[in-house]
Amino acid sequence: MNMSGLRSSAGKCLQLTKNGIRSSSSSSTMSSDARPVLYSYFASSCSWRVRIALGLKDIPYDIRPTNLIKPDETYCYTNEYREINPMQQVPALKIDGQTLCDSVVIMHYLDETRPQNPLLPQDPLKRAKVREIVEIICSGIQPLQNRIVLEHLGKEASMAWAQHWISRGFRGLEGVLATSSSKYCVGDEISMADCCLVPQVFNARRYKVNLDAFPKIVELDQRLAANEIFLACHPHRQPDCPAKLANK
């Protein structure tokens, strides 16, 4: 499977490779005007889901790094960006003359409008299982440990809170994966569920969750982490990743 091309907001052509994102002078087969534009923050697991989905579908796109952490330095908190995404969060994807602002909505839209390399299985039960796993992660785990929640709790309480809710969610997820998974989360084909799993496991490690009780989650994450598209979309291989973390 070919990797997708990117452009930075400054217009420099960027190419996804096995080693991440590098500058390239090669031209794309799709004009810059036709390319989707992804507003993304390197450490955002929601942005990461969409980067993976775009890569799996081999869709070239421009990327606009959008910092979430420093209000005085970031486009995210401007009135201009509020018009793009009223929640002032990432991701946002400009595509087909419209803007979509939720990672799951974006993945479904990509699958419905660009059917190559589908993110959902054809089998109705497998399709339902993919959606079940997506909902467990995207509704039952990640929102409870999201940055804005942890900032509201304060530094002293945030780590224990994140560990509690991720561990609780992983206990349920491990049980679902025990019956749905084979090579990947649902059967032997990469799906939308896998796009969501890997970023959430990264978050679990970030918050020092003990993963010993979740062998299936760890197994799947390790297998997916070796995939060239997942590697290229990793936070530490993004153009806005701090130098001290890049390619680590």
Automatic annotation (TrEMBL):
- State which pathway it belongs to: Amino-acid degradation; L-phenylalanine degradation; acetoacetate and fumarate from L-phenylalanine: step 5/6
**UniProt keyword list:** Isomerase, Phenylalanine catabolism, Tyrosine catabolism
List, for all copies, the residue spans of the domain called GST C-terminal. Answer: 123-243
User: What EC number(s) has UniProt assigned to this enzyme?
Assistant: 5.2.1.2
Give yes or no: UniProt keyword Ribonucleoprotein.
Answer: no
User: Which residue ranges does the record assign to the GST N-terminal domain?
Assistant: 34-118
Stretches that traverse the bilayer: none
A single GO molecular-function term is: isomerase activity
- Reactions catalysed according to its record: 4-maleylacetoacetate = 4-fumarylacetoacetate
Name any one Pfam family assigned in the record: GST_N_3
Keyword hit for Isomerase: yes
Q: Which cofactor does it need?
A: glutathione
Family according to the record: Belongs to the GST superfamily. Zeta family.
Q: Which PANTHER family match?
A: MALEYLACETOACETATE ISOMERASE
Protein name, per record? maleylacetoacetate isomerase
What lineage does the source organism belong to? Eukaryota, Metazoa, Ecdysozoa, Arthropoda, Hexapoda
